[in-house]
Write a structure and sequence with these properties.
Shape: globular
Order of helices and strands: EHEEEEH
Number of domains: 1
Amino acid sequence: MPDGMRAARFTTGALPRQARYDAWRHLISAVFEPSMPAGHGCKDLRAEASVAYFRNALIACATAEAQHFTRSQRLIAAEGLDHYIVQV
């Protein structure tokens, strides 16, 4: 790995079922406030993320079950992140 580069990986599969959604929510809470669609439980959420940091850049690849994401004015003000997000 080049100097200045760090990487991390997260998966809900390594956690007890009852802890998965809270752990995922905590992981992405700096960028989004997630919520599950009506009728979907969150006890067995399947999600994973791989992240690479390089100097002041962050590149992430995440896969998760259907969710709604909110980025409120309160969250924007609290975190103060200056970034671009490209989602596919």
